[in-house]
Amino acid sequence: VQLQASGGGLAQAGGSLRLSCAAPRRTFSNNAVGWFRRAPGEEREFVAAISWRGSDSTLYADSVKGRFTISRDNAKNTVYLQMNSLLHEDTAVYYCAAGRGPIASSSSSYYSYWGQGTQVTVSS
Predict the structure, then answer these.
(1) Which of 13, 29, 47, 71 is the residue whose CA sits 20 to 30 A from 65?
(2) What is the pLDDT of residues 60-117, one digit of tens each?
(3) What are the DSSP calls for 12-62, one per residue?
(4) d(Cα 32, Cα 42) in Å, to the nearest integer?
């Protein structure tokens, strides 16, 4: 029951990347999905989350608000994280996770199923 994050890579500061998170339908259905990240030497932190219903209920960390956009395509069992105006401090491994229910949450303990992560590196 593993989520698959993809789309990471190397970008220049000010550039953009789009991450994707694919999950089995039984994991994806009726559950919120969140994105978290862990920078080298740092603890994992919340980035963004979206409810099962979609873009009418989203949460963002203050550090990414206005730059990142989370969305989902329930027909494709996929959640996206569009990252614009990237900063060097966005460099991290990004993880997606499926929650225990339909409501978006910023708490990592709410999420039961995690992907392996995708590396995002932003050069300054």
Answers:
(1) 29
(2) 999 999 999 999 999 999 999 999 999 999 999 999 999 999 999 999 999 999 989 9
(3) ETT--EEEEEE--HHHHTT--EEEEEE-TTS--EEEEEEETTEEEEEEE-T
(4) 25
CA–CA distance, 102 with 98 (Å, rounded to integer):
9
- Contact between 34 and 49 under an 8 Å Cβ cutoff? The reply is yes
Percent of the chain surpassing pLDDT 70: 99
Nearest Cα neighbor of 51 from 1, 2, 108, 101 is 101
Collapsed DSSP state (helix, strand, coil) of residue 71: strand
Least Cα distance to 28 among 81, 82, 75 occurs for 75
Q: Please give the order of strands across the beta sheet that includes 17-22.
A: 4-6, 17-22, 78-83, 68-73
* Position 1 pLDDT exceeds 70: no
Locate 63 and state its tokens: 């550090």
The token duo for 56 is 């009418």
